[in-house]
Amino acid sequence: MNQIPVATWSCLQDARILDLSQLLPGPHAALALSQLGADVIKVEQPGGDTLRAMGHNAFAQLNHGKRCISLDLKTGEGRSAFLALAREADAVIEGFRPGVMDRLGLGYDALRAENPRIVMCSISGFGQTGPYAADAGHDLNYLALAGYWAVPAQVEDTVARPRVRVSDYAAAAYASLSLAVAIMSARQSGRGQHLDVSIHDAILAWTAGAAWTAKCAIDVGTGTPGVMPDNDIFETADGRHLVLGIMENKFWLSLRDRLGAEHPELLLPQYESRPQRQQRKGEVHAMLKRIFASRPLAAWEAVFEGTDVPFSPILNAAELFDDPHVQARRVIRALDDGTCMAARFPVKFSAGLGDIPARVASIGQDNEAVIPASGWPRRDSLT
């Protein structure tokens, strides 16, 4: 099995980031930067990140490899300790509602007074300004208000909850990208800045294009071009599901050639081209739904093996981590005591990108090593 290459150098290798955030967006952004070489210190309240209450696995996924300290920022001692760390840091990530950091005496103005080149990244539901800025919310709220369900997606369209926190991950991706740029810019200019990351803005940046298309075709509903009857999810005879990713017409022709002998309705001339099928969305979808309900998933896997049809079984959690492609790409690794699996950084660097430590720290585990003014511990002290 190929070994994970060790990076010889990263432009973020000596970047120091204080992660004050909780739950998903901020910790995921900080994790990505850690995987890219930055040195991340997670600063928790005395009771710890709220994510710890959701179980070891939930916390470990987003916070492995980070040193963890505990500070009560409502006390003078806690604030002084944090400001001392901020003097030597490149960035601070926080996820409080707008105004909280200022009330704690740790807003951007206070931080840059201590360290002019510091970057502060504030991740909030609706941003630091605007009529919704002070409103409470979580992933589903931002999806609802950013048009996620305004985009028709299927012939038999339903409003259903996404399986992962899509808007949180969108915000984390934009936050980590922006932090990398802002940190490098501050090193060149000597001046930091305040990044205002709105989770709602982030997911709106993803939904806006498709939502505008839907708005322009609001009278046709699922008649919009993005709804394709042969690019969808279908249930099989054993209650499992498969997906077809047919967009280009050549894939329809491959499907038709593979199944046409047994299902001659696929060969009808009115289904030959994409425009023809788009005009008959209901009947095409019903036809495919009926065909795929006739056999169990394993039988369909055998039918499509070796073909050029974009067919995939929908894997369950028990199957996912043993999938041969996942294994070959080494996307997943074991953490801590081996009871938890987590994803590596998903981009392969030809120059190498080594693993961050697999350790999952307890609340305040690194207070003694990190907080003293003697400096920051070496990354290898975690291993």
TrEMBL record:
InterPro entries: CoA-transferase_III, CoA-Trfase_fam_III, CoA-Trfase_III_dom3_sf, CoA-Trfase_III_dom_1_sf. The keyword Lipid biosynthesis does not apply. It comes from the Bacteria. GO terms for molecular function: transferase activity. Keywords: Transferase. Transmembrane segments: none annotated. This is CoA transferase.
